[in-house]
Design goal:
Two copies of one chain form a homodimer. Chain A is an alpha/beta fold and 307 residues long. Chain A folds into two domains: 16-119, Ribosomal protein L30/S12 (60s Ribosomal Protein L30, Chain: A, 2-Layer Sandwich), CATH 3.30.1330.30; 125-301, Alpha/beta knot (3-Layer(aba) Sandwich), CATH 3.40.1280. Helix content of chain A is 45%, strand content 17%. The first copy, chain A, contains 14 helices and eleven strands. In chain A, strands 7-6-5-10-8-11-9 form a seven-stranded parallel β-sheet, sandwiched between helices. In chain A, strand 5 (135-139), helix 9 (145-157) and strand 6 form a beta-alpha-beta unit. In chain A, helix 12 runs parallel beside helix 14 (277-306). Chain A is elongated.
Amino acid sequence: MPGVPGGDALSNPRSERVRAVRALAGRSARLRSGTFLAEGPQAVREAVLEAARLRAGGGADAGAALVRCVYATDDGASRHRDVIGAALAAGVPVRRCTEEVLAAMADTLTPQGLLAVCALVSRPLPDALSPAPALVAVLSQVRDPGNAGTVLRAADAAGAGAVVLTRGSVDVHNPKCVRSTAGSLFHLGVVEDADPAAAVAALRAAGLVVLAADGGDPAALDLDDLLDDASAGRGPLAGPAAWVFGNEAHGLAEDERALADAVVRVPLHGRAESLNLATAAAVCLYASARGQRRRGAATAAAAGSSA
Amino acid sequence: MPGVPGGDALSNPRSERVRAVRALAGRSARLRSGTFLAEGPQAVREAVLEAARLRAGGGADAGAALVRCVYATDDGASRHRDVIGAALAAGVPVRRCTEEVLAAMADTLTPQGLLAVCALVSRPLPDALSPAPALVAVLSQVRDPGNAGTVLRAADAAGAGAVVLTRGSVDVHNPKCVRSTAGSLFHLGVVEDADPAAAVAALRAAGLVVLAADGGDPAALDLDDLLDDASAGRGPLAGPAAWVFGNEAHGLAEDERALADAVVRVPLHGRAESLNLATAAAVCLYASARGQRRRGAATAAAAGSSA
């Protein structure tokens, strides 16, 4: 069976190794080992593809430095040969294991025969801002792992280069958060435990305007008006921007709002009092993505008409 | 204590009444009784405000026809006097109960001292489309109650008038779905168990263009291009639209896509393969909301310049 590794399958669900992998569902084991668990074909595929990218740019060991080991049942390996092939090509060790062993390692009920132990992805703020991305999401005191993961996924889709979580936010390596990112955790510069004031200063120094999203503030700028400005090539959505999103229940604290260059609200056309955090974030981040591209289009059109 | 009802508090968590309310967490009891449970101050407030609206339009009994009873602990009632006052003004019975009774009734761990038994909100499709709303969300085979509820909330925020769930979709009165709507369940015309072809035909007959959202289709129209068209006052985002969203895992079936007037994708600027259902829905619904308002602005501007 090409692409499916041979060798003895790990078969003892009570072994030291299996228990060490299982323990990664907990924060203390993740911090101690510097690793976390990516479960299921989508997350493992994105991890392995990122490992291949790192290896292409950074030498033979760079892939395995990100993905320490892929564990696969025979069934998982034969259904996802592309993933196993990419892992082997990236220099990532692949270990066969029985269904029982995989179930004992996993946090999910159905990891579909594949999981990977990966190095923690968070990095220092200056790394994530070099080169400066045109779009960044900042999560301040966001507590729900599903919300945070869904924002990471939406940020990736909207073309953001980094996501910054301030001190007191959820651990992005929490299994539920990892699942909600659907692999996007491996695509973004992720910063954890950031100090809000220091993060805002660094973002501004990197040339980004800092926008606080706050649906509850009637004095906030209306996102639709800013999109109008951006189609004319001006305003905060026409250029690089960092969006700051607050806690699910309490929004942004006054001192966090005060740090921003502007406070912006998504217009509420119906009778809903607010949007869910991740849906609001998606609307804001896509507004910036659109505004930045419209400015590009406006600039191109102006260049064309003056030529 | 004004606004806080008197009378004996219900104190037996094993009583017939308490067990009947608790049973509403299950679908069969909801269908049998025609009622469901709204838990916590936000859901109960929106239920009661809708009851007041119905009473203002439809006579003394119309409020209590929607909200059959509000149950409140003394603490819940004194912290949310506005809700209790609005319930009493809408002709909705309010019953005191002990913390133990409320906990025994509730599906949530923390209903914060308030819950309401309400009549099921779903209605026949012709009712929900009369008068025809300018924006509708259709959920096809959506299975996760949290996803469905979050889409309802986003649809409400974007100004949609109705949400249609096709046969095989989640029950919107499921407690987790109700919570995720954050009260928006009471703001929208909700249709359940719809036949996809019949729903599309009715939406089209009501003057709406039917757009299937499908991120995985490279031949689909790009949402950004449609927004450009809409700023020029043309295309499907410039007028009334129904958006059809598919199952979380499998998207839309081929026959469902074929029913639509156009297939549209949200552009993926980064490396994410797709968006989460609710975030994609929010971006699409807000695009329609913006396109419809831009057309309004364009029309107003044209009228102004020709005057």
